[in-house]
Every structure is written in C-alpha cells, then in structure tokens.
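REQUEST ID: PR-0412
SUBMITTED BY: lab tech R.K.
PRIORITY: routine
TASK: structure prediction, single protein chain
INPUT:
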Amino acid sequence: MIYLPPIIAVLFSFLFIYWIKPKKKENIKLLLAFSGAFLLALTFFELLPEIYESGNPKQIALFILLGILLQIFLEFFSKGAEHGHMHFDIIQGKFPFILFLSLSIHSLIEGVPMQKGDMLIGILIHKIPVAMLLSLFLLNSKLKLSSAILFIILFALMTPLGSFLATETTFIVSYGNQLNAIAIGIFFHISTVILFESGKGHSFNLSKLLVIILGVGLAYFL
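STATUS: complete
OUTPUT:
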C-alpha cells in the first residue's frame, strides 16, 4: 500500500489542474514553500540521524555531496522542474524525453528513503505542488493532451518504482546507505532552492515565511 499514495497524489494533482484551471500560481507556490520546509525538516529530524548512525560519517557526507551535484546536473536538463521552475521549451508534437528522463531519475532516487519513518508524508507533500505546476505547464504547452497524460502517468510511477527497487532488489539493497545519502543531498538542494527563492512583493514573502515556519513546526512534532 505504500506504493499507491505517490501515484494517487500526482494523478489527483493533474486532474485538479485540468478541471479547476487556476490562473494564478501564488497559492501553489506557497504550498511548494511549505512542502520544501517540511521535507527539509523531516530530512534533518529523521533521515539524517538514522543514516549517520548506520554508516561511515565521512563516506555518508561524500554521497550527500554527490546527491547535491547530481541534482544540479539533472537541472541542467529539467531547468528546475523538480522545485517548480518550468522554463523548458516543448516542441509541438514532440514528447519531452529529456525533461521526462531527468525528472524520472530524480523521482526514482526520491523513492529510495520513502519507507523510512515519516518520509512518505514528506515526499507526498512535496509531490503535490510540483505535480500541479508540472501539470499546469504541460496543459498550457504545445503538447497533445494524450502525451501530457502519458507523461504524468509515467512520472507518477517513478517514485514508487524507486522505493520498490530499493527494498526488493538485492544489489540496490546492499547500497542502501549510499543511495539514501544521495537522496538526502537531492532533498537538501531542492528544498533550499525552494526556500531561498524570492517572490514578488512583501506580502508574498511574509506569507511564505509563515508557511515555512509551519512546515518546520509540523515536521518537528510529527
């Protein structure tokens, strides 16, 4: 049952955007800021202490840095879609394989620590606003509706697939600590980019600060 919630979250987000067709992104951006703070706090409170207890600290630090560098590399192709930036140019009639591939690699690794503690909740809350912004981008692009739906369905499957492979594949299980450290690096990068991204106007920045505090607080008391 742990594999189902991420799929439902992404598909529900797509259907919500398709039916509601929101014209303003501010509320989704605030939800994204909340999700970034919540995911970052959960990583600090739960995932980071656990992984440092079960491995070589210097090696773990190295793989966390590799995760940060990997995410930077992926964003060279995705243009930051993992944290809500949609600056990718879609050619009419062409399925955006580069965008899909970079998002898929990110989502696969994101699924590795999904079964640890409350990380499933953090990943779900992160997935929803990103899936909304991605859906909004795909539906407003030159992509066919059928291709957009295919993209979203495949994207929805990647995180649970990563979690499944991390627990059921012997080779990957043997490198669990290293993969979890890479996932931490990815979470660090996308969360901090979301948190430090500036919005337009002081009211948005104040609202963003409040939802960030709320996200950290909820993660602490979870």
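NOTES: The chain has a mean pLDDT of 88.
REVIEWED BY: pending
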